Amino acid sequence: MGLALLSGVAALNTANNLLYRSGGHAVGGGCFRRGLSGRVAAAGLELIAPQNAFAMRPVTLRVNLHNPRL
């Protein structure tokens, strides 16, 4: 994150659009990979929520885990 911030400041100082694009691709690619790996890791989870939930009231959630491996 610090490297992305540093390259953003450098791009502002030099008015170089290539740094903006390369930084955006690096950060966007990292977010995409992280989201994809999270979806794969949570593929066997099923979240069951109640029909009604009210503000400032505790809610019980049930999580089912399906593991197809033996």
What is the number of beta strands? 2
Overall radius of gyration: 21 Å
Give the DSSP E fraction (strand runs of 2 or more residues): 5-15%
For the termini, the CA-CA separation is 40 Å
Described by strand count, sense and barrel closure, the largest sheet is: 2 strands, antiparallel
Low-confidence stretches: none
Q: Overall 3D geometry?
A: elongated
Which class best fits the helix and strand makeup? mainly alpha
Q: Helix tally?
A: 2
N to C succession of SSEs: HHEE
What integer is the average pLDDT? 81
Question: Widest sheet: strand order?
Answer: 1-2
Level of helix content?
A: 40-55%
Domain count: the total is 1
Q: Would you kindly provide a brief summary of this structure?
A:
The protein is mainly α. Helices cover 54% and strands 11% of the residues. It has two helices and two strands.
